[in-house]
Amino acid sequence: MNQMKTIGGILLAGSLLFFTSCRKNDRSGGDTSTADKIKDTAISYTRDIYLWYNQIPSSFNARSYSDLNGMMEAIRTYSQEPGFTNPVDRWSFAIKQAEWDNVSGGIAQDFGLNIFFRAEGDLRVRIVEPSSPAGQAGIRRGWRITKINGSTNITTSNANAIVDAIYYSSSVALTFQKPDNSLVDISLNAGTYQEKIVMLDSVYTVGAGKVGYMVYNSFLGDSSQTVNEFARVMNRFISQGVNDVVVDLRYNGGGYVAYQNELANYLVPAAGNGQLMMRQQYNDKYTQFNTTTNFNKKGTLNLPRIFFIVSSNTASASELLINNLKPYAQVVLVGPSRTYGKPVGYFNIPVGDWYIFPVSSRTTNKNQEGNYFDGFALNNTVADGLDKDWGDITETCLASVMKYIGTGAFRMALPEEPYIESPAVTTANKRISSQSFKGMVTAVKF
Q: Which of 293, 227, 240 is nearest to 266 (CA)?
């Protein structure tokens, strides 16, 4: 945190000099608009701190974009990495400060409902926030949506309208098909709620051993609540003598590196205590701020292997956790697809009433591994069990892990019809997934 304050202080001093220079050099006789000054400041910061700053052309015109987010999205073009054909930056962005304060604090204002296509015409609830309007109405993961505002057009070709109704409306009327095939009509009004950090934690008996299972929703949220939740869950696992731990990160798009550090310190085997966790590196203007972080083991779990349930929505701080543990334990990845691929991070820089987030650092583990822009490959590919609630041992991903723990082999055949995602379903789900945060933020208050 102090490091981020120091870098931020240097950037702030630079911006003050930049503003002074602009005033001295403005001989046009006209006033530069506040919006243009903000864009000028944002590009000045970005040319300084961006990981690939030397690829941004001098001709880049920040004022040609309607807002700072448009400008930051354009900056992504200038991020070529050896070994990759296309620019690797998919993340630099800008957001209004008030909105970010809510997002980063785990405060949401919507229905508390996250959806996904299981197949063409089969739209499922994949996440329900317990404190949200949807959670309070009793909606559960795995329920099938059959009507939205009276419309039965629940198809991938109608994805944009579905996204608007679920994520951008103040009210919605939904019809659900429950697991017992009964139908229920529920109307929701958007509301403010605190997102739940750990969606579920359970302990299962598998053979002669015990397995701890934890569904971790996001590396964002309140720091004290996060620390307390980690302690509660891990102490439960310790007290019940678990032999294996399964961390479900399939929808965890990342967040604060500090929270990753906290969880990694519980999961790392005892032999990793005091050893290198990760290196964090900035561009060649800021090498004095490059850091190393060592493990500071917490608790008494001593896990030779750790299971992670992942997907293409598993990003950034989630991937950092996996990468940092790989040199010290057998890491087993199970899920429908390889992870997202974001081995870089950023921190928020205030510009006017915005924050900009230019990618500013990269991380590597003890073995200097960290160029996973294509994500991590799976040890076992299995469909996301969108028809089951959290913790259901027949849910395909969890069942696959339990099968391996119990027998040493992954489940080879599923009791239900295999789920094969069509191109149309993939496209629609990417549209839906774009609503979620994917990031690695390097500063947080503890």
A: 227
Q: List the domains of the chain with CATH numbers.
A: 2-99 (no CATH), 107-194 (2.30.42.10), 198-349+360-416 (3.90.226.10)
> Residue-wise pLDDT tens for the chain (446 aa)?
455 555 554 444 444 444 444 444 444 445 578 999 999 999 999 999 999 999 999 999 999 999 999 999 999 999 999 999 999 999 999 999 999 888 888 778 899 999 999 999 999 999 999 999 999 999 999 999 999 999 999 999 999 999 999 999 999 999 999 999 999 999 999 999 999 999 999 999 999 999 999 999 999 888 999 999 999 999 999 999 999 999 999 999 998 999 999 999 999 999 999 999 999 999 999 999 999 999 999 999 999 999 999 999 999 999 999 999 999 999 999 999 999 999 999 999 999 999 999 999 999 999 999 999 999 999 999 999 999 999 999 999 999 999 999 999 986 544 444 445 788 988 888 888 776 655 555 654 43
Per-residue tokens: 55: 């690829």
